[in-house]
Amino acid sequence: MPSHASALVDREDLRQQVDGRLRSVLAEQADVLARISTDAEPLVDAWTQMLVGGKRLRAAFAYWSWRAHGGRPGTAEATALVGVGAALELFQAAALFHDDVMDRSDTRRGIPTAHRTFAARHRDSGWSGDADQFGLSSAILLGDLSLVASEDEFLRAVHEMPSAQTDPARRLFTQMRTEVTVGQYLDMHAQMLPWTDDFDADERRAREVVRSKSARYSVESPILLGAALAGATTRQMEVCSAVGLPLGEAFQLRDDLLGAFGDPATTGKPAGDDLREGKRTLLVVRAMRALDPGARTRLASLLGAPDLTAADVDEMQQTIRATGAPEEVETLIETLSDSALSALDASGLDGSAAETLTALALAAVQRAA
């Protein structure tokens, strides 16, 4: 994350407070698991690794939305919002553990993914059975642990707040988790479908995946959660969606470009990672639409193919660039961002907090990792 974005998350000591809360959760979980069995210790190590170094953008969107809707620092409610931010980070960790399994990813943030780490532990220890299956199963269970912890942390954070604020927030938190789970399925389902000439349907599916799997839980839901916990009106919540959904789409479309063309040294993933995984992103759909049948067949044969070489990835990148699809996605990112920022500018929210929210929005779509 760019240094200016990191500085935004550091405002009002938010990152340090969220990180502190996460350390407390992990310490509590370490005690629980140790009482069950000392053999569970590697789970805590892997869980800690996943939670270290996150951008904390979701926590920041929730907190600064709460501030922009009248929340005040240094209060008990501010402490509650830190807990909500930690719950969002725990939920993201759960989603990432599961996502890495489904995508068969080798690395995240430049280090081996959890399922690869546990598979290596199995092999190095000379255990019996299938090492890869052990790794996959361990990562799935880690995701489940983090999902349960996210629920516990959310409920603990808001339990003393008025029900008029916490009831809608709880519904939002539940809805967010359902949307991400369904979005994961839709993403997987889209990759299984054969390519046809129905690019309108492909684009519809790609946009549905963007909205359900990422846009809402990355940006819209955190902004709505912060607003709800500040007691926002129905109209204010509508404005939050008008800001959060297009901004979340732009956020994920930026991820799609980075997944195809990002610098591995910055993203922490192999070059062309989304192309290696065969992701049916809007970028790829737009490229396929622009290609002639022969080139389309060639690109389809490479997307997600096992044992791709660096030359194969480079060929896909060059093919997609030549179609102009990256520029089309950049234009869409700009259009969506402008829509979100216009809605935020017209919202009439509290000045300095709204300025921070605006700066966070820009950082989310202008990042390089």
Automatic annotation (TrEMBL):
Any one GO biological process: isoprenoid biosynthetic process
Database matches in InterPro entries: Isoprenoid_synthase_dom_sf (IPR008949), Polyprenyl_synt (IPR000092), Polyprenyl_synt_CS (IPR033749)
Keyword NADP: no
Superkingdom to which the source organism belongs: Bacteria
Alphabetic keyword roster: Magnesium, Metal-binding, Transferase
Family: Belongs to the FPP/GGPP synthase family.
Keyword Transferase: yes
Entry protein name: Polyprenyl synthetase family protein
Cofactor entry: Mg(2+)
Lineage, top ranks: Bacteria, Bacillati, Actinomycetota, Actinomycetes, Micrococcales
